[in-house]
Amino acid sequence: MELRILILEDNEADADLLHRELKKSELNFITKVVQTRLDFEDALEIFNPDLILSDYSLPSFDAVTAFRIKQNRNPLIPFIIVSGIIGEENAVELIKDGVTDYVSKNKLFTLSTKISRALNDIQAAKEKIITDKKLKSLNLELLKLNQELEARVVKRTKALAESEGRFRSMMETLPQISWTNTVKGEVVFYNQRWYDYTGLTPEQTKLFGFKDLIHADDLKNSSAQFISILLDKKGGEFQIRIKRADELYRWHLIRLMPIVDENSSTLLWVGTATDIHELKLLQQYKDDFIIIASHEIKTPVTSLKASLQMLDRIKDNPSSAVLPKLIVQANKSMEKVNVLIEDLLNASMANQGQMDIRRQCFKLTELIKTCTNDTYTDQEYHITTEGDMQVEVYADIIRIEQIVINFINNAIKYAPESKEITINVEKVAEMVKVSVSDKGKGIQPEKIRYLFDRFYRVENSSQYSGLGLGLYICAEIIKKHSGQIGAESELNKGSTFWFTIPFC
Predict the structure, then answer these.
(1) How far apart are the C-alpha atoms of 296 and 339, rounded to whole Å?
(2) What single DSSP character describes residue 110?
């Protein structure tokens, strides 16, 4: 699909720079550049853009006016301001007013990421509109059905039971947990999704009810929101954590809509609970990642800047004794920045399916020996390799080395009290399995399933460096080799990270 990008820019050089930056993102796009209000309004109708990139200030026009015009015509088009003069405070205020995002002309390398995020957000907004329309349509159907039920109650006919069956069947077809409650809030019906999720029987449900399954931290606020929605009589939504049958809490979006009669009197309420746990975690990972990435990159850059400033002061005295130390320090800082950038690039390529894999046959234990020699020389740790010492594998030697080093470094970083690290090599079916084990404090069971997700870190403490991308990249490498990857852990006994790859 070709992305239509409208550029509001009066500087030809800046417009060309934007165009070149967009090409780097490998987006499939066409652009149209305008400078005046009239051309901008015409382009909204004729060019019908999917995205707008606007300079903050033009001689006869400005981004604020352009944004308001766009909002009146099509509020769903993402609007990103690209400027070098707007200032952070103005940018924050504009975003509060509804502008999608802001990119400094000095940091155009962030443009593609913000475009992707804007397009993803707008797609989510469109999907929410579609879902709301479907829910509204369902509510109308339920209203019609309820009116039929009332008429049949009055007539005391056999059709009452049939209508109730239709109503319940409709509720059972919903993919979410759903229920109906009276205007006073008493739940009178749950669909089967409720019983499947909670593991409760109808009798247990009557005994415990909904409140006993809501996370304690959410109970007070959710109860207040529930009552507020019932009193407002217009419907609404809020988010809570609901306990699953396995005792784990998962985030759900609660929606409540009233069923009203022809006199606009509320007859009953229909509620749904949509599982948004993964979306909630992803948003949290993204937010944490932005904070972590800013911190991780800022630290070596600050150190590099300090070294360069010192070097600048002594540039006329090349014989200074401090010169070699400053050069070494600057190189270390640059290497840290390179490692962070390499992780970001590898994650981006993996996400786009562009990670290059070059397979060859090699002896796995020789690679492991190189990894242990190159990555850690402290005699305090004892790294042992055991198992099939002669097996050869068919894989990308550089990528597999990357995984082994990552596993060893993680064992040292997250289990420093474990002085023994064991690497085991064995044949399993048609594959070779490599396991790296430590005897550290272990990992909580509920966190293991997320270890190989993007941006996820078991510990969010600032004492651990990194972007939370290492294990995600490892998982993508193994996926390219048609292998498997995983982790096992027992609290206070240690952890084992493993992967499988084909042998020659």
Answers:
(1) 11
(2) G
The domain made up of 281-351 is a member of CATH 1.10.287: yes
pTM more than 0.70: no
Question: What are the structure tokens assigned to 172, written together?
Answer: 């059972």
Domain boundaries, the chain: 3-122, 127-279, 281-351, 360-502
- Which parts of the chain have pLDDT scores under 50? 157, 160, 460-464
Q: What is the pLDDT of residue 195?
A: 93
| Range list of β-strands (E), 138-217 | 177-181, 187-190
Q: Are strands 392-395 and 360-363 parallel, antiparallel or unpaired?
A: antiparallel
Q: What is the dihedral of CA 68, 70, 71, 74, to 10 degrees?
A: 170
Task: Give phi and psi for 418, each to the nearest 5.
Answer: -90, 110
pLDDT of residue 193: 92
Instruction: Return the structure tokens found at 292.
Output: 């972590």
Residues 283, 324: Cα–Cα separation, whole Å: 44
Among 240, 206, 235, 207, smallest CA distance to 223 is for: 240
Written as one string, the DSSP assignment of 167-182 is HHHHHHH-SSEEEEE-
Per DSSP (E only), the strands in 348-440 are: 360-363, 382-387, 392-395, 420-428, 431-437
CATH classification of 127-279, choosing from 3.30.200.20, 3.30.70.100, 3.30.450.20, 3.30.1340.30? 3.30.450.20
**Which residues are CB-neighbours of 423 under 8 A, at least 6 positions away?**
368, 372, 383, 384, 385, 386, 404, 408, 434, 435, 436, 437
Contacts of 219 (CB under 8 A, 6+ apart): 211
- Report the candidate in 265, 262, 217 with the shortest Cα–Cα distance to residue 239: 217
What pLDDT, on a 0 to 100 scale, did the predictor assign at position 461?
45
At how many degrees (to 10) do helices 159-173 and 111-155 cross? 170
Structure tokens at 319: 């014989």
Q: Identify the residue whose tokens are 């109708």.
A: 45
- CA pair distance 58, 63, nearest whole angstrom: 8
pLDDT, the chain, mean: 83
Q: Which CATH fold topology does 3-122 show?
A: Rossmann fold (3.40.50)
Per CATH, which fold does 360-502 belong to? Heat Shock Protein 90 (3.30.565)
φ and ψ of 366, to 5 deg: -65, -40
Question: Nearest-CA neighbor of 116 among 279, 3, 281, 282?
Answer: 3
Question: What is the pairing mode between strands 266-275 and 177-181?
Answer: antiparallel
